[in-house]
Every structure is written in structure tokens, then in C-alpha cells.
Design goal:
382 residues, alpha+beta, 4 domains, two-stranded antiparallel ribbon, 5 helices, 22 strands, binds zinc ion
């Protein structure tokens, strides 16, 4: 960063109620907000004031550019909508200005380029005119020299015809001195020198100077929001930046999009409306991650609680298509249960016994009854 530039601090006073502001911006439609607390931090943006000096053809022009950098990007700055007070450098821990300054310089380049182009074009057209003038005048001189040479040569021919040796010698001397006077090489060098001089006269010099760095800071609110859904509690850390009007920290656990309407899944995930699903068996709310099972009989989407694995075929099925055998306590899907021909009920297929009376396979319960009956009959028979 350029030294010697002035550094200023400005503070934005925001007249707002942070709790109300956050409540306006986010909601928890399927849970209850138990507590919101917040603490203040500082957010920053910067204003770099550059003076750009354009120097050309003996003229000097100073242009002032104010460049605002917010979140690493140049922004259209306007402080008039804020209440500003003088800030204190000691009050805040200012992050490094290096990146912001670099960014501002890049933007300055873009902003000044158009003016540079206009001036350069103008200077170039001036220079081209001057160059043309120089070239014309040198051509004229060369032409004049050639004319005088041919004049002398003509005279020489005349004297030669007459045989005037004295005059011939005179004209030869004239030719030599004319050649000496108008040395072509020197003439060409003079021309180039003149053109170069004009070119330098039409150069543009641009100098950028950082005049002032203004550090503008304002409160950013870091909230802790405690949520209750049935017996489930959850805490969210949410940040609200009143200048960018952005909320950070609320992201759907399922699709990773930013959310403003936060739904709580029955297993505690925070999701967006699109990612909130219902178990088709118990009707409870779950997120996409928590509702991956489908009943292999009816294809209903079912939660973990409503999913049962059949003890016989290992299929995952919903509660509607499953039954727990009262005696064995094992779960079976409807197609694996066996109907007892005596009582007509669906029973654990592994607990059938052969009836001593009829030789048919009957359920454990019916078998026990039969045995008891036998004992009783036996008692009476005795
Ligand atoms: Zn989502
Ligand atoms: Zn369920
Ligand atoms: Zn979930
Ligand atoms: Zn089912
Ligand atoms: Zn089964
Ligand atoms: Zn039975």
C-alpha cells in the first residue's frame, strides 16, 4: 500500500432492533422458537480515494475517483442513506486491506482506461499531423536540392559544348558544395530527430495516487436461535449483515441451498420446504436423507421407525404389510405368514406342528389347545 495516504474511520449507526429484523427474515414453520440471543460484531467496507494525474502537451489534469470495496468486490457506493459518525481505529480490529486495495486498483484501471484511450487517440492524431508536416518540408528541401543540381548540370552541358574549361571547373565546384551542403544522410537523420521530438511532445503520462483510505464499519449481528419441536431441541448460529442484508448460517441439510423458511425433520435436520417429506406410514415429517426406505410390497416411502425387516424373506416392509407373531415376537411380511387351517389366523410359519388328531399342520396355539383337550379328555376317560 502506498505510504503517506490518509486513513479515516467512519462508523455507521444503525437504528434497528436486531431481534425484530431477524424475525422478519427467517421463520420456523414446524417448530417453536424458544430463545433468541445475539452479540454484535463488526462488518467492514472500504472507500479508496484515488487522484489520477493526466499529463500531456504541457497540460495537467487531476481526476478524483472514489472506489468502494465490499466483500472483495467493487460496489456502487452511496453513504448518504446511512447515519455516519466518526469512527475510532482503536475500537475495531480492521482486517487486512491488501486484497481490497488490490481490487480497488484494478477497478481504477478500468475506470481510467476510457479517458486514457480518448486522450491517446487525440494525441496520436496531433502527432500524425505534425509528422506529415515534417515529412512534407523535408521532401520540399530534397526536391529543391535536386532541382538546383539539374540546373547546374544543364549549365555544365552548355559549357562543355562551348568548351569553356574555366566555367566547367566552376560548375563542378558548385556541384560539390551543393552536395556538401545537402547531405542526404544528414537530412534523413534530421528528419527522424524532428519526428522523434514531436512524438515525445505528444506522449501521455498517467500517474495514480492513493489520497485517502476510509474504513467504514457497522454492526453485524451473530444470533443463537434455540428451537423446540416436540421433544427435539436444536440450536442455530445465524449471522445477519444489515448492510448486505444477507443472512449466513442457514443451509438446508439435504440440498445445501440457503434457507429462510427452516423446517425441522423429526430426526433434527434443518431443511427447506422442498426437502421436507412425510412418512407415508406414520405421517411424521422427515427430510430426504431420513426417508430413504420404501416398502417392498406397496412402495410407500417409510421412515426408519415404520420399516420392518421380515424374519423369513428379509424384505423391508411397512407396518401395514407386516405382522408380529404374538408368540415368537418375530416380524413377518404378509406373504411369509402362514394361515392356520384350524383357527384361520396368519401365524409364524416356523411354529407349525402336526396335529395328532388330523395330521394337518396347525399353529402353535391350536396345537397347545389340542394337547390340553387331549389331557382333559384323558382325565374324563379314566
Ligand atoms: Zn433442501
Ligand atoms: Zn413412519
Ligand atoms: Zn432428517
Ligand atoms: Zn407396505
Ligand atoms: Zn417375508
Ligand atoms: Zn391356529
Amino acid at each position: 500500500m502506498e505510504n503517506g495516504s490518509e486513513k479515516l474511520f467512519l462508523k455507521i449507526n444503525l437504528n434497528l432492533n436486531p431481534i425484530e429484523e431477524i424475525k422478519k427474515r427467517i421463520s420456523f414453520p414446524n417448530s417453536e422458537v424458544k430463545r433468541i440471543v445475539f452479540r454484535e460484531k463488526y462488518g467492514f467496507f472500504y472507500r479508496f480515494t484515488f487522484a489520477t494525474l493526466f499529463e500531456y502537451m504541457g497540460k495537467k489534469e487531476d481526476i478524483i475517483n472514489e472506489i468502494y470495496i465490499f466483500n472483495g468486490k467493487p460496489v456502487e457506493g452511496n453513504l448518504s442513506e446511512y447515519t455516519l459518525v466518526e469512527g475510532k481505529g482503536s475500537e475495531v480490529k480492521v482486517p487486512s486491506l491488501k486484497n481490497a486495495y488490490f481490487c480497488a486498483k484494478e477497478d481504477l484501471k478500468k475506470r481510467t482506461q476510457e479517458k486514457i484511450n480518448i486522450i491517446s487517440r487525440m494525441l496520436n492524431s496531433y502527432f500524425e499531423k505534425e509528422k506529415e508536416r515534417i515529412e512534407k518540408s523535408f521532401t520540399y528541401e530534397t526536391k529543391r536540392f535536386q532541382e538546383s543540381l539539374s540546373e547546374i548540370a544543364e549549365k555544365l552541358m552548355e559549357f562543355a559544348k562551348k568548351g569553356d574549361i574555366e566555367k566547367i571547373a566552376e560548375q563542378k565546384k558548385l556541384i560539390d558544395s551543393a552536395k556538401r551542403e545537402s547531405n542526404f544522410i544528414e537530412l534523413e537523420k534530421d528528419k527522424l530527430r524532428a519526428i522523434q521530438f514531436e512524438s515525445q511532445k505528444h506522449l501521455l503520462n498517467v500517474e495514480n495516487r492513493l489520497d485517502k483510505t476510509t474504513i467504514i464499519y457497522y454492526p453485524v449481528y451473530a444470533f443463537t436461535i434455540d428451537i423446540l419441536k416436540g421433544k427435539l431441541t436444536k440450536s442455530f448460529a445465524v449471522e445477519f449483515d444489515p448492510v448486505s442484508n444477507e443472512i449466513a448460517g442457514l443451509i438446508c441439510d439435504s440440498c445445501s441451498n440457503r434457507i429462510k423458511e427452516v423446517f425441522l425433520c423429526n430426526l433434527g435436520h434443518a431443511v427447506c420446504k422442498k426437502c421436507l417429506l412425510f412418512c407415508e406410514s406414520c405421517g411424521k415429517e422427515f427430510c430426504k436423507k431420513c426417508l430413504k426406505n420404501r416398502c417392498e410390497i406397496c412402495s410407500k416411502k417409510i421412515c426408519r421407525n415404520c420399516s420392518v425387516r421380515c424374519f423369513r424373506c428379509s424384505k423391508l416392509v411397512c407396518k401395514d404389510h407386516t405382522k408380529q407373531d404374538k408368540l415368537s415376537k418375530y416380524f413377518y411380511c404378509n406373504s411369509c405368514l402362514k394361515r392356520c387351517e384350524r383357527c384361520g389366523n396368519l401365524k409364524d410359519p416356523f411354529l407349525f406342528k402336526v396335529s395328532k388328531k388330523t395330521n394337518a399342520e396347525i399353529c402353535e396355539e391350536c396345537f397347545r389347545n389340542e394337547m390340553q383337550q387331549n389331557v382333559l379328555t384323558g382325565v374324563f376317560e379314566e
